[in-house]
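Q: Predict the bound structure with flavin-adenine dinucleotide.
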Amino acid sequence: MNIIVCIKQVPDSTQVKVDPKTGTLIRAGVPSILNPYDHFALEKALEIKAKTGAKVTVLSMGPNQAVAVLRLALALGADEGILLSDRAFAGSDTWATAYALATAIRKIGTYDLILCGQMAIDGDTAQTGPGIAKQLNIPQITFCTHVDANGQQVVVKKLIEGGKQVLEADLPVLITMTMPVDYAPKYPSFMAAHKAQEKPVHTWTAADIGADPGKLGLNGSPTRVDRIFPPPARTKGEMISGSPAELASKLVEILKKESFVK
Ligand SMILES: Cc1cc2nc3c(=O)[nH]c(=O)nc-3n(C[C@H](O)[C@H](O)[C@H](O)COP(=O)(O)OP(=O)(O)OC[C@H]3O[C@@H](n4cnc5c(N)ncnc54)[C@H](O)[C@@H]3O)c2cc1C
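A: Predicted complex:
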């Protein structure tokens, strides 16, 4: 069985600040990490590998430094890494990104299970995984917390409003993984990281994957970023004090004043 995990290098959002003057993100000096949802998806792929002997290929599109997340994935146990890196990819929106990743997956050739994170913590759109499935014309199941596969079928647990669904699907299928709130990513030992240096990482350009240049970058992107701005600062809350009866009556007064109740 061949599993492909799409992984993205993202800025550590806990350390990103917004420039109050320009409203743009201050990325300088901010460390890059493996998108946590992708880290979780990779761990699930490696669990399937441990049971079935599946081959796990990790695929990332980004600048040259994104090779770091591929190396991390190889150290964790993935077999092969592929980096899509080319100026032709710059300016791609989620649809053009999905096109590039799907075209690379077609070039890889044999795939049974494609795992993506639910979303990237910088872009936050959750569109790329479904976009890849659409471009490959294969089924997709989103928001999964568990995944298991046996070579013919996949069984997943999918989050839904108020509960979980257990779903089965024939392979090939694309799954997007969401992680539990208490998820703590695993990291490789020094020795594993050292050994993983011998594993292959290929860098492919747009020409290498036979991509149509008109479907990449800004030309291939149906969306445009109009403006980026931080949300307005929240106004200070009002503290009220008193006995429970006084608090209740003050609260009712406030709600009436704000026209929430008559
Ligand atoms: C007009 C426009 C121009 C843009 N220009 C640029 C640009 O020049 N440079 C730039 O970096 N971004 C650019 N972006 C942002 C870029 O399109 C998105 O970061 C990218 O499409 C992924 O979307 P997302 O971050 O919302 O990921 P999501 O859709 O939330 O990610 C879901 C999952 O898809 C997979 N995935 C997403 N991105 C990748 C990836 N790159 N490699 C492998 N797997 C991935 C991961 O499994 C991830 O968990 C631009 C966006 C727009 C709209």
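A: DSSP finds six helices and 13 strands in the chain.
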